[in-house]
Structure formats: C-alpha cells, structure tokens
C-alpha cells in the first residue's frame, strides 16, 4: 500500500512537471498573446491552491481513499480535454479544472502516508516521499520535452492514461481501513493551542519560502545561463543536479538524520543553506560555480522539505491532518506563483532576483528563530 501511495505522489507531480516545457508553446500555438500565455501557465497553480484549501475538509470527513479514486479519475479525464482546445480561453478553462482537481490528490496522499508513519519516524517517511517528488521533477520535464517535440498532445494522452489506470487500481491497493489506519502518535491536543498554532505557521512559512525560492530559480536560472552564454541545455542539467543531490540525501542512510534532530532546527538549517546557495548563484560567473551552487541548493532542499512536513505531522491530530496538509500545499502553490510573479513584475536581473529570494529566506529564519527563543514553547519537536 505504501509503495502505491508513493506512486500516486509521483504520478501527480510527474503530470505537473511534464507540462512545464510545453504549455507556453502550446498556448502560443492556439493564438494566445504573451500576457495571456502567462495567465494560462499560472492558472494551474492558482486553481490548485483553491483545490488544496478545499481538499482537507473532504479528506477528513470522507476519507482519503475516495478522494484519491475520484480525483485521479477526473484528472485523467480532464487531461483528454487538452487536445480538443482550439482557443486560448478554452485552454484556460481546462487548466483551471486540471489544477483544481489535482489540488485534491496530493494532500490526500500525503495525509495517508502521514497517518501510517511510525511514531518517531515521520521525518524519514517524508524524506522517502520527497524522493518520489524529486524523481518526478527530473523525469517529468524530460518526458514533456522529448514527447512534446514530436506531438505535444502525446504528453496529455499518456498522462491521462496513467491517471485513469491508477484511479482504477486504488480499490485494489488501498484497503478500506488503510486510510485511517497507522501507528499511534502523540496527539497535537497535548500541546497548548498557541504552541500548535505557531509551529503549524512555521511549517506553512517554510513551505512558502521553499517554493518562492523555487519560483525564482525556475524564472532566473535560464536567464542567467543565457546571459553567461552557456549552452541552453545547461539550465536543465543544473536543475537536475539539485534534484539528484536531494534524492541521494532522501534515500541514503542520511535520511536517519530527519528523526534524530528536531524538525524545526532542520527546517531553519535548510532555509539558511538554500539562502546561501542563492547568494552563490547571484555571484556565479562560471559553469563550475553554478553546479557547486546547485549541489548546495539540493542539500538545503533535502533538509527543508521533509522537516516542514514532519513538523506539520507532529503538530496535528489525525482528525484534522487532511485540512492541515491542504493548507500546507496551498502555501506551496502560493509561493511558487509569488516567486516568479514578483521577480518578473519587478523586471530585476538574475542577480537581484536571487538576492530577493535569499533575503526572504534569511528574514524568515531570523524572525522564526527569535520567536522560538522568546516563546520557548515546551515539548518542541
């Protein structure tokens, strides 16, 4: 069952990442202008955020198995609508539906994984889940670029088939009792309401900060590579470098560190390391330094992603965990949109864009650390 849920996580992110290399050109081919192309591309994240926020209530009330089966099935059906779009407005509507329905799948999958994680091993569990996301982040764009170069509709059809087949397999691989089953863990009710609230906010801020940096990186790194007159393929290999680094940390025995150290400390460490990597990127003029920066970025990502997820798990009771993960991934979507949109709107250079993202990360680390010291909450985990 656990492997199957990890596969669902992989398929969901693979679907999203595989469309990154093709959506702009697909929209342009339908006659969309530059501004409208940006709206079409961003619509997925916008509606995904809405779906994330609504998903939690249904996950907690109607159980994640049903959400996964319906969500995967509808998402697969929507993917088959893409080839029928003949105008930019139709494509925009399909993107809205696609992002909205997809917003239900990931919170449901992560909630089920969290509820089945052994007490004291949530960090390692989230690290392994992060590896599934990382593999999708590497394989998705590669598939989209290769398949889309021949016939862009192939990407939608293949993803649609995968979604429908996975939806059909849900009843066989996820038993009825599996959704709410799992080992016991300390209830968040043991903590004061104020402490739970502050730590959950820290997790949300960590998610926003991570994806803000990702948004800036996705927007600025290709511009930096182009300005430094390196091969256009360097952008892809640089992004793969950080992904491979993170996956190695997730899957190697180093993943034991996630349950040895407190999630809050690993979270602030990861944010600081990513901030440092962004500072290096802003001053990198050689390909070697770019690769070194991306390896460091991958280390920070590897420490940050599982720790913010583990922090959320340890501070929420099972009965409300679906809602917690729903809002958690809404902050993911918001950060991704804000990172690229803000730096794009300011029309800043890649150096200034990386500095803005680094300042956001360091600023959040500073105020959260000071707040933690000031409050000194008991039972900090």
UniProtKB/TrEMBL annotation:
**Where is each Major facilitator superfamily (MFS) profile domain found?**
1-375
MF terms from GO for this chain are: transmembrane transporter activity
Q: How does it sit in the membrane?
A: Multi-pass membrane protein
The record, for Pfam families, names:
MFS_1 (PF07690)
Tell me where it resides.
Answer: Cell membrane
Listed GO CC annotations:
plasma membrane
What's the protein name? MFS transporter
């Amino acid at each position: 069952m656990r492997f199957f849920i990890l596969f669902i996580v992989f398929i969901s992110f693979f679907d999203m990442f595989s469309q990154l290399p093709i959506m702009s050109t697909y929209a342009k081919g339908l006659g969309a202008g530059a501004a409208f192309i940006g709206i079409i591309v961003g619509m997925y994240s916008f509606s995904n955020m809405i779906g994330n926020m609504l998903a939690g209530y249904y996950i907690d009330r109607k159980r994640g198995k049903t959400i996964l089966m319906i969500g995967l099935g509808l998402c697969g059906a929507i993917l088959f609508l893409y080839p029928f779009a003949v105008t930019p407005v139709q494509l925009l509507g399909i993107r809205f539906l696609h992002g909205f329905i997809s917003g239900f799948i990931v919170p449901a999958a992560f909630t089920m994984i969290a509820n089945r994680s052994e007490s004291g091993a949530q960090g390692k569990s989230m690290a392994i889940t992060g590896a599934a996301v990382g593999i999708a982040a590497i394989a998705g764009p590669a598939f989209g670029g290769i398949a889309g170069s021949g016939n862009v509709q192939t990407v939608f059809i293949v993803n649609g088939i995968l979604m429908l087949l996975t939806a059909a397999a849900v009843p066989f691989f996820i038993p009825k009792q599996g959704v709410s089953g799992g080992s016991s863990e300390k209830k968040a009710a043991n903590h004061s309401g104020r402490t739970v609230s502050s730590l959950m906010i820290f997790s949300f801020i960590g998610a926003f900060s991570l994806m803000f940096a990702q948004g800036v990186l996705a927007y600025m790194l290709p511009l930096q590579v182009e300005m430094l007159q390196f091969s256009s393929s360097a952008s892809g290999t640089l992004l793969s470098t950080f992904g491979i680094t993170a996956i190695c940390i997730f899957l190697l025995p180093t993943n034991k560190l996630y349950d040895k150290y407190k999630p809050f400390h690993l979270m602030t460490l990861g944010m600081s390391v990513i901030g440092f990597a962004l500072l290096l990127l802003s001053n990198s003029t050689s390909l070697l330094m770019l690769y070194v920066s991306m390896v460091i970025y991958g280390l920070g990502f590897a420490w940050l992603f599982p720790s913010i997820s583990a922090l959320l798990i340890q501070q929420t009771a099972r009965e409300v965990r679906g809602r917690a993960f729903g809002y958690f991934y809404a902050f993911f979507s918001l950060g991704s949109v804000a990172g690229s949109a803000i730096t794009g709107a300011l029309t800043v250079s890649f150096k200034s864009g990386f500095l803005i993202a680094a300042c956001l990360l360091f600023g959040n680390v500073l105020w959260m650390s000071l707040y933690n010291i000031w409050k000194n909450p008991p039972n900090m985990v």
